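Customer escalation, tier 2.

The customer says the design service returned an amino acid string that "doesn't look like it belongs to this structure." They asked us to rerun it and document both sides in this ticket. The original structure tokens are below, unchanged.
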């Protein structure tokens, strides 16, 4: 399905962090073209701005997952959480396509200087939360840290129903979570793509199967919609699950694995299609609460370039396989 020319022109008027993906995924630009745009992310726009906030010790905001001084502060009582600490900054920079060379020395600095707020554990070893560990796995692979031991954590901590849950390690749940499982498989896919290590593939496929058996949206026990969050698309989505973010993962996994779209994705695809506006865009829903370094998308209710990029490439991928 060709992207509407007006929508494409609008998307091409974007920050380099988004622009190179539009060129690659929607405009059909040759690799040398979009790779040149991608190389600009570290020196222009969002990428350059976020890199400028890095501390001399390799961290952002003085902390691993939360900024220094967060606990016991007035900010800790506010809705959401701040999105300015090290892990969130690395997630954004990696997702935006920043070359690891722009962060030369960061892996070593974090190994020396950054500790998790949980039990003061060393940064690249991860901790007990599967979402945090998935981010650390992907970011470590990207920056060249040795996270092979952390990779082995994931198969060992899968739950009996096939997925993961961030609350399982505290004994609060024995059932998998849509949010946690998607974060886990995204981290595992990034790790495998970057390192070539196929040792986590079985665990990733098992987590993906957990979501597929639920058609990305429904409880296994009752068949009911798992929650309204499935249909609320937001950028940045951080840790939060939606049908759109799940489909974008399955698109990436399908392209990486060389497989066709699974037919069990069909209902989620139609949810994404129904959210597309008559002009071909998708609207931002409520941004996640919490402090950021700067805004990277529009307020609630406005057409979002990020969501439109993701929604369009998901539908293009699906519709190409199902003409």
């Amino acid at each position: 399905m060709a992207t509407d020319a007006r929508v494409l022109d609008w998307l091409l008027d974007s920050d380099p962090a988004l622009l190179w993906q539009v060129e690659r995924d929607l405009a059909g630009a040759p690799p040398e073209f979009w790779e040149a745009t991608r190389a600009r992310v570290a020196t222009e726009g969002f990428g350059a701005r976020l890199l400028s906030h890095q501390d001399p010790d390799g961290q952002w905001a003085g902390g691993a997952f939360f900024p220094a001084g967060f606990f016991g502060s007035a900010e800790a009582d506010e809705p959401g959480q701040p999105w300015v600490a090290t892990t969130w900054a690395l997630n954004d920079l990696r997702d935006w396509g920043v070359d690891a060379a722009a962060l030369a020395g960061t892996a070593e600095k974090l190994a020396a200087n950054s500790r998790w707020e949980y039990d003061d554990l060393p940064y690249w070893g991860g901790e007990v939360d599967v979402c945090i560990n998935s981010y650390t796995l992907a970011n470590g692979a990207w920056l060249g840290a040795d996270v092979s031991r952390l990779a082995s954590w994931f198969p060992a901590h899968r739950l009996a129903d096939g997925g993961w849950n961030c609350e399982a390690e505290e004994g609060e749940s024995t059932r998998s979570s849509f949010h946690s499982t998607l974060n886990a498989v995204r981290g595992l896919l990034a790790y495998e793509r970057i390192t070539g290590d196929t040792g986590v593939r079985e665990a990733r496929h098992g987590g993906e199967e957990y979501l597929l058996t639920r058609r990305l949206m429904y409880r296994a026990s009752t068949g009911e919609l798992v929650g309204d969050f499935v249909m609320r698309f937001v950028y940045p989505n951080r840790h939060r699950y939606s049908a759109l973010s799940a489909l974008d993962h399955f698109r990436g996994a399908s392209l990486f694995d060389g497989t066709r779209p699974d037919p069990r994705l069909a209902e989620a695809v139609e949810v994404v299609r129904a959210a597309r506006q008559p002009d071909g865009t998708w609207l931002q829903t409520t941004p996640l609460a919490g402090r950021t370094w700067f805004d990277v998308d529009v307020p609630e209710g406005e057409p979002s370039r990020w969501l439109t990029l993701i929604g369009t490439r998901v539908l293009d991928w699906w519709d190409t396989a199902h003409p």
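Tier 2 assessment: The sequence is consistent with the input. The chain is about 45% helix and 0% strand. Residues 85 and 220 are 36 Å apart (CA to CA). Sent an explanation to the customer and offered a walkthrough call.
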